[in-house]
Amino acid sequence: MSGRKRATVSLSNDDRKRLQAASERLSQVEHDYNELRQRIQQFNNQENQASYHELEARQQGINHSLAGMNQQLMAIEIQTSQALLEQAADFHQQNLITGTAIWDQTNQLLNQHSASVYAAIEASQGARQAEFLRLNNALIHQKNQTQSKKRAARSMIQAAAILYQALETAYHDEPKAFKQLQEFQNAIELAASNLESDFSEAALVAAQQAYHGLSNLRGEMEVIIQQRGYLFTLASAKAHEVKEIIEKNQHIRAMDLDGNLLEIQIDTDFWSEGRLGYLDEIIQQIETALNRPVQELETENLAAYIQVCEQVETEIIQSVHQARLNAISSQVRFNIAECVVGALKEQGFTLENSEYGGDDMRNQYSMVLADFEGNEVSIEISPVPGEIIDHNLEMVSHDKDLRTEHELRQRGKELATSLRGFGLQIGRISGAPVGASLPTSQEPAKFVRESPPPTYHINKRIPGHKTD
Fold first, then answer.
1. Cβ–Cβ < 8 Å for 358, 402
2. What is the mean pLDDT of each run of 10 residues along the chain (468 residues)?
3. How far apart are CA 311 and CA 12, in angstroms?
């Protein structure tokens, strides 16, 4: 007759408290953050300096192209260049302070930079509008307004064309600038056409509008280029940092219930149920995206990459933590199994065979024990979902002689009493639901190992075991 019994088995409350107290240590990753951050900071500094020098070269190139322009407008554009350089210098200085800061701080820095640059753009815009107003008022008092308007329109068209050519040279490889530059070129051509048709006033207005838009575009492009460059550098550095952390934590040292490091290496991806490998794939996708020319990258996407890298870094810690907990849980099953073998030995049973399900140490642990009369007991120890040290213990008796329910229940009670002697906590014993049969010694195909049990140990001490 067969009897199936089930009970929840767990370690002692003291062991549970030890594990809870060790929670933070279980999350310890294998990495030298200080050394890595220093290297990344050095990389960021070099990229920031290169970015500033590129901006400086662009602005010098634009300024050198302004010869032949109205002197007042040229002076305004040179002042705009100086303001952009000053804002960039301040922006890069702040970059040195924040380094690889969390995204909230980075986003705040970007907002501050945008606000300061657009303030400079507005100041330049106000100076241009004042100059346009001065020119327009001067025309009103000219005796020959027709000729004066023609000269003013021609001068404005020339200034717009000069600025257009300077910006086209400076931003020719920027997709965002290309379309707008085309529109302003068309506006300048329209202004020239109006002038040829003696629509001087319309030509002047169109040329002023084109010039005004081009000057604003210059500031807008510098915001995009500076911030995109900064985000690209930060995203690249973050991805490299996280990639290195993943590589350093492919194998980590196991820990015991107290969070003490053991001389045992465990495969983090295996014990985290493939989580670390999944995170590695995410970083590889980001690195692939970052291999594209920087001009093709959107600042919104770069910002998203940085935030994803930060999330992945947090999840690496969680994966390391979960891997160590799963390894401890596996060891707890083995330790419980040792206690069960010791308890049933008192009833005359000896171990016939045992293994982790599917030869996978993350799964349930099964055993078959037999006594000298040929009676067998099949044991399965499986983790309670979401728990580490709580397990379900299921026992099925295969007796040659008929056993009463009372006798089977008594066997279960004796086993529970013996397990309590090992310091384990045993829940209420109940009849297990009927399901797949547990293995017997006549079913060796289900077992890879017949004896002895696996020798893998994280904590060689049986938790809660009483010693004399």
1. no
2. 74 83 83 67 75 84 83 81 78 60 63 68 68 63 65 86 91 87 93 90 89 87 85 88 92 89 92 94 95 90 91 93 92 90 89 91 92 89 87 83 71 80 78 51 33 32 32
3. 35
SS3 391: strand
Contact in structure between 305 and 290 (CB atoms under 8 Å):
yes
Please write down the long-range contacts of 46-55, taking CB distance under 8 Å and 24 or more positions apart.
Answer: 47/229, 47/233, 48/92, 48/95, 48/96, 48/230, 48/233, 49/92, 51/88, 51/92, 51/226, 51/229, 51/230, 51/233, 52/88, 52/89, 52/92, 55/84, 55/85, 55/88, 55/222, 55/225, 55/226
CB burial of residue 379 (10 Å; 0-12, 13-18, 19+): buried
Encoded tokens for 19? 């594990």
Query: Cα–Cα distance between 459 and 258 in angstroms, integer?
Result: 10
Domains of the chain with CATH codes: 2-18+329-446 (3.30.160.110), 33-238 (no CATH), 241-319 (no CATH)
Strand 390-398 and strand 261-267: the pairing is: unpaired
Beta strand pairing call for 376-383 and 350-356: unpaired
The neighbouring-strand residues paired with 356 are: 365
| CA–CA gap between residue 416 and residue 426 (Å, rounded) | 6
Report the C-alpha gap between 54 and 406 in whole angstroms. Answer: 88
CA distances to 48, 259, 417, 421 from 342, in Å: 67, 27, 12, 10
Q: Smallest Cα–Cα separation from 255: which of 391, 457, 454? A: 457
Alpha-carbon span 267 to 205, nearest angstrom = 71
What pTM was estimated for this model as a whole? Answer: 0.74
**C-alpha pair distances (Å), 182 with each of 66, 164, 213, 400:** 20, 10, 12, 94
